[in-house]
Write a structure and sequence with these properties.
By secondary structure, the chain is of the alpha/beta class. It folds into 2 domains: about 160 residues, 5'-nuclease (Rossmann fold, 3-Layer(aba) Sandwich); about 45 residues, no CATH class. The chain contains 11 helices and 6 strands. Strand 4, helix 6 and strand 5 form a beta-alpha-beta unit.
Length: about 220
């Protein structure tokens, strides 16, 4: 089973976080989600006022929290942003295959290849991992839990998924009927970096740098 370390920016946002956790058991290739105390603390700093704290959600749902790296000075880096070395170190310490993050460009290609992992945008990761049927189940469950708008499948899909997980929205755009993207954010520049295929979870020297998919998975 693949191990996914979730970065603070993703953990702090309700929609990407919820879709990821609901997708764990529905994905074609299942995965486990982890984060460290440092990531949890950074996520809580970034949460909206009044939002349910990540630590409270973790305790309520039994989410996996893992140790931070005991000494990040031991980690040799070449091209990762200094502020994200602690995230990379936590991924290394806990044998993560992927860092799921909205800041893919902050993780250096050389470092990711050296430590046999990939950094992937959550929408792109999910688009490669869940089927149309699984996506339907996830959005339907999210809608059933809500009393306030957006609380229909189409509204959640058009408003929240298109804005925060645009690649996932694009893959299943018309699954709830004709849908229009209501994205308010700038287009994504980076969705993948690294050496682990986002589809099969295998290390590959022949991985597509733009798609993050190995030649075997790209073959018809």
């Amino acid at each position: 089973m693949d191990t996914v370390l979730v970065d603070a920016d993703v953990l702090a946002q309700a929609t990407p976080r919820t879709v990821l956790y609901l997708a764990r058991s529905l994905a074609d290739r299942r995965f486990r989600i982890i984060f460290s105390p440092h990531i949890e603390a950074e996520a809580e700093k970034a949460q909206r006022p009044g939002a349910n704290k990540v630590s409270a959600l973790r305790q309520r749902f039994g989410w996996n929290i893992v140790p931070d790296h005991p000494d990040i000075s031991e980690i040799t880096v070449a091209d990762t942003n200094v502020k994200d070395i602690s995230i990379l170190a936590a991924a290394i310490a806990n044998d993560a295959n992927y860092i799921v993050t909205g800041n893919v460009r902050d993780f250096g290609v050389q470092d990711l290849v050296s430590y046999s992992m990939s950094a992937v945008h959550p929408g792109y990761f999910l688009a490669q991992r869940i089927s149309e049927n699984a996506y339907r189940k996830i959005i339907t469950e999210m809608a059933a839990r809500r009393a306030k708008p957006p609380n229909t499948e189409l509204d959640i899909h058009e408003i929240e998924i298109s804005d925060e997980l645009p690649t996932l929205f694009a893959r299943y755009q018309n699954v709830f009927g004709p849908a229009i993207s209501k994205r308010t954010k700038a287009p994504l520049k980076y969705v993948f970096r690294g050496a682990i295929c986002v589809t099969c979870g295998q290390f590959s020297d022949g991985i597509s740098p733009n798609l993050g998919i190995c030649s075997e998975c790209l073959s018809p």
